[in-house]
């Protein structure tokens, strides 16, 4: 019976080729498709090979580590620490006078009457 295992990167057969299986998703990769030279692959321990995680599974891991020791702020302390308005610069827009060189309402009435 033919071996139908395929590399998850190049989709070619992994039969008779050193490969690594992801310990999470069980996908299989040629050693060269994941940038391991044959000497690097051979130098890996059996334990390391069995715990290897592919890049796709690594990217799904939560970033930033454990934040369980981060103190939680109460609602009252947030209100007390909010920035005060005295430190905010508020600028008013320059007012333009409404003296327009446009046609005045009386001029419009005269034009309509004509």
From TrEMBL:
<protein>
    <recommendedName>
        <fullName>PHD-type domain-containing protein</fullName>
    </recommendedName>
</protein>
<dbReference type="InterPro" id="IPR019787">
    <property type="entry name" value="Znf_PHD-finger"/>
</dbReference>
<dbReference type="GO" id="GO:0008270">
    <property type="term" value="F:zinc ion binding"/>
</dbReference>
<keyword id="KW-0863">Zinc-finger</keyword>
<dbReference type="InterPro" id="IPR011011">
    <property type="entry name" value="Znf_FYVE_PHD"/>
</dbReference>
<keyword id="KW-0479">Metal-binding</keyword>
<dbReference type="InterPro" id="IPR013083">
    <property type="entry name" value="Znf_RING/FYVE/PHD"/>
</dbReference>
<keyword id="KW-0862">Zinc</keyword>
<feature type="domain" description="PHD-type">
    <location>
        <begin position="4"/>
        <end position="60"/>
    </location>
</feature>
<dbReference type="InterPro" id="IPR001965">
    <property type="entry name" value="Znf_PHD"/>
</dbReference>
<dbReference type="InterPro" id="IPR019786">
    <property type="entry name" value="Zinc_finger_PHD-type_CS"/>
</dbReference>
<dbReference type="Pfam" id="PF00628">
    <property type="entry name" value="PHD"/>
</dbReference>
